[in-house]
Amino acid sequence: MTKRQAASRDELARLAKRVSRCHRCPRLVNWCREVAQQKRAAYADEAYWGKPVPGVGDSAAGLVVVGLAPGAHGANRTGRMFTGDRSGDWLYGALYRAGFANQPTSTGRDDGLVLRNAYVTAVVRCAPPANRPQPAERDRCLPYLVEELKHLQYARVLLALGAFAWDGCLRALAAQGHQLKPKPKFAHGAETVVGPFTLIGSYHPSQQNTFTGRLTQPMLDAVLTRCGTLLGQS
Predict the structure, then answer these.
(1) β-strand 157-161 against 191-194: which pairing, if any?
(2) How far apart are CA 160 and CA 188, in angstroms?
(3) Domain holding 123: CATH number?
(4) Is 23 exposed, middle or buried (0-12, 13-18, 19+ CB in 10 A)?
(5) CA distances from residue 43 to 96, 107, 184 in whole angstroms, order as listed
(6) What is the domain range of residue 9?
């Protein structure tokens, strides 16, 4: 590991601690705690994370995957982004098939998952009620994404899972001085260059999209294959 990579790793670790202690949005912090106390029957014997969730992955990643927010009984339970729910099953399975992960499943923070050239994060770090953060909550949380992109010095491709993440990525890039006008529209497979980054859109692997067939495994695989091609992995 180079000194530059070690510095990125250390900065991201410090950021992760700050994220997990964040109290900027009382409504979201209280909701995370409430869910962690009430639990879902299937996880009644588990200890929930119940607080903001930091990003996870390779500090030298070329690909940054950006979601909306942690799932109430997924990442809010396990403490790792996109871990422990069906959305995560789809995402990590696709990352594995594209060569970005060492295994196709992500069930908990100690399951042995290693991301290769990829980092997974979200626009909002707390699980929001009804999966709908308020604009003010998005804005208070956005600086964390801006800081992550600063420390992920090798990142060149951003994969936005859903329109909310697409908008969040554009806002974070604008905060770094990379702004496009008119604003690029979100679509599955949409691709645009913003500063040093290529931003790619994909439908979110939520049950609403995967159960209805709006998003299929071949569609998600194709997007991640494109990410790999841009990073020279193919």
Answers:
(1) unpaired
(2) 9
(3) 3.40.470.10
(4) exposed
(5) 26, 13, 41
(6) 3-230
